[in-house]
Amino acid sequence: MHLKPESEKLNTLPGAIMLKKSMLKALNEQINAEIYSSYLYLSMSAYCQSKDLVGAASWFRVQAQEELFHASKFFDYIQDRDGLVTLTEIAGPPTTWKSALAAFEQALEHEQLVTARINKLVDLALKESDHTTNTFVQWFVNEQIEEEASVRQVIGQLRLVGDGSGMYLVDRELGTRTFTMPAPAA
Ligand code: FEO
């Protein structure tokens, strides 16, 4: 009698290991969305640098790094579930804004879109009874609270100081942000 290798046998169990097609597609699309986020923030960093706002430029560089980390979490998760990562074309981001404040305002709008995308991933995981993916995506559900809050805080500070000399102090504070590897899921 021919026995299948252990891994092959496991992959034929219903609901075990393999991701369903629709879930795999949505997770791959999220890799693209996270890399686009990184691209967008890198562009905002370049814009701020061109306006001599080196602190804001540095803040966006850190944010761009975080987004690549998010993308790599999805990348690893797909592979851990024995899925195929398929990378697709990344759209070009805008390159200029009316002001640093306008860039941060767009960043907040963008994060709100990302939050909506993450919620859709949860909806899909629940619909497909994919409890593993649901648990995985919960890390991002929590992360999005901080993602939106940190941008909202900067917008509040920039609106307070307007175009005056206080901008120098806000920019200096933005420059103190450093990239720290987010804590793994509990
Ligand atoms: Fe990856 Fe800023 O969300």
| CATH T-level fold name | Ferritin
Please outline the major beta sheet. Answer: none
- CATH structural architecture: Up-down Bundle
Order of helices and strands: HHHHHH
Task: Write down the Rg.
Answer: 20 Å
Structural class: mainly alpha
Bound molecules: MU-OXO-diiron
Q: Specify the CATH homologous superfamily.
A: Ferritin, core subunit, four-helix bundle
- Measured by DSSP, the beta-strand proportion falls in under 5%
Could you characterize the architecture of this molecule?
The chain has 186 residues and is mainly α. It is built from six helices and no strands. It has helices at 6-11, 21-50, 54-80, 100-127, 131-161, 166-174. The model has no long low-confidence stretch (mean pLDDT 91). Bound molecules: MU-OXO-diiron.
Write the layout of secondary structure elements.
Elements: H1 6-11, H2 21-50, H3 54-80, H4 100-127, H5 131-161, H6 166-174
Helix pairs in contact: 2-3, 2-4, 3-6, 4-5, 5-6
The structure holds MU-OXO-diiron (FEO).
MU-OXO-diiron (FEO) binds at residues 34, 37, 67, 70, 111, 114, 147.
